[in-house]
Amino acid sequence: MPNMKPNKNTNSADSQRRVLITGVTRGLGRAMVDEFARLGHIIIGCGRNGKVIAELSASFGAPHHFAVIDVADDAMVRDWAARVIKSSGVPDLLLNNAALVNQNAPLWKVPVEEFNAVIDVNIKGTANVIRHFVPAMVDAGKGVIVNFSSGWGRSTNAEVAPYCATKWAIEGLTRALAQELPRGMAAVPLNPGIIDTDMLRISFGDAASSYSTPRKWAKQAVPFLLSIGPKDNGKPLTV
Ligand SMILES: NC(=O)c1ccc[n+]([C@@H]2O[C@H](COP(=O)([O-])OP(=O)(O)OC[C@H]3O[C@@H](n4cnc5c(N)ncnc54)[C@H](OP(=O)(O)O)[C@@H]3O)[C@@H](O)[C@H]2O)c1
Q1: Rounded mean pLDDT of 57-76?
Q2: In the list 27, 118, 120, 122, which could disulfide-bond 197, CB 3.0-4.6 Å?
């Protein structure tokens, strides 16, 4: 793997951001790690897969920070936030990216455990991360919170009702949060588009291969994410 340590020549201390990303072990999160690091930013990332988190820690090293965290576990997120803020500082850009999609099925056939897991990660997980990281951002008086939504947070489709419910919730939760933040900060729901990841394969099967790769998506998405600021507060955005 190439050396992904921050490129000190790319960013002055002023423009270097601390970027917190949930769900960095696969898909969009993993691709964003490479691209933010390539541009010289500092990554604070989490996911549940311990093997991939260990590989990320070994490849990227300090000042990046990767931890095995289940965002649905509020106490785990609370302890992680305390450690991160002490050792790495307050995030400048918080990306609530981690999520699950249900297996395609009519709502009445989705098992209760699966329905609960989608709600727990996509809605409660996002709220847990906000609960424990945003107070420090508010105290600092700056920072941008991007909650990953979906086309299915603004439209619907058969067989993804649990997922649609969570992404419509993300749209509402984020726009209400935007009304609570002090001037100088922003919270936005983001539809990332349609990208060939494990998640898309669950919903689209092999048809997922006709969509962009996460790596290609990240080249376009990361500069866009870095451009979001207070002027965008509360706006539903799309990459
Ligand atoms: N791909 C698309 O076309 C598309 C379209 C619209 C919206 N989105 C949204 O974009 C975001 C990323 O999607 P993706 O396609 O990259 O999904 P993905 O390939 O399935 O990756 C999801 C990531 O979230 C992590 N994750 C899941 N549950 C977690 C938990 N409880 N705690 C911590 N991490 C957790 C996974 O890691 P572990 O398994 O290691 O925990 C993985 O790294 C999601 O919010 C998704 O809804 C994607």
Answers
A1: 98
A2: 27
